Amino acid sequence: MILLVNGPNLNLLGEREPEVYGATTLHDIEKMVAEACAAYGRVVRPFQSNHEGAVIDFIQENRKDALGLIVNPGAFTHTSYALHDCLKSVSFPVIEVHISNVHAREEWRRQDLIAPVTRGQIVGLGPAGYYYAAIWLCTQATDPVMGEYDEDGGPVEVDPNDVRVDEAPPVVGGDYEG
Ligand code: DQA
Fold it and tell me: Which of 140, 91, 134, 81 minimizes the C-alpha distance to 112?
């Protein structure tokens, strides 16, 4: 199971500064990531909050089930030592995504407190960044122990239209090479 976490104001994608963030909605992004991961038999658990503590609670609560995290921390990127510490404590790979090129915008957006505790970042490629992050995680997570399998040992069926699938059995988190 892969976590997809979006921080503050990203619930307004599609209407928020469309000249910067485009017309794609958060629902579109969650669906795109769910479909991308479903092709690899992976389930996505999406979450968005405008509250720092809620984001941290969600990551902590799901830390034992997750094999990877795609996170756009929004403005928490530039301010949150608490989210930095949270991500430092998890054992699965974290991919940070920014829709806009934060390095080409205001000076304060260049400070990134999250980057040092991620495996990598995808910045400035629009919503496609979430897709690339999903593909990277799915193709890295090759250990069968980490997968979701049915009773017969086959990969679980994932409905790509249902981005709220969260019935995955617990999986073991761990370190990944690569
Ligand atoms: C953002 C960039 C942040 O600086 C900003 O606060 C956001 C969105 C992005 O996706 O480009 O909320 O993370």
Answer: 81
Distance 10 CA to ligand 1 centre (A): 8
Sole residue written with tokens 């990134």: 112
Ligand 1 atom closest to the Cα of residue 78 is: 4
Tell me how far apart the alpha carbons of residues 148 and 22 are, in angstroms, rounded to a whole number: 34
103 close to 109: Cβ distance less than 8 angstroms = yes
- 21 among known catalytic residues: yes
pLDDT at 140: 85
Q: pLDDT tens for residues 116-171? A: 999 999 999 999 999 999 999 999 865 444 444 555 655 555 555 444 434 443 33
Handedness of CA 143, 138, 169, 87 (dihedral sign): positive
Domains of the chain: 2-146 (3.40.50.9100)
Q: How far is CA 93 from the centre of its chain?
A: 10
User: Which residue lies with its CA nearest to atom 8 of ligand 1?
Assistant: 74
Q: Which long-range contacts (CB under 8 A, 24 or more apart) does 54-58 make?
A: 55/5, 55/7, 55/83, 56/82, 56/83, 56/86, 58/3, 58/5
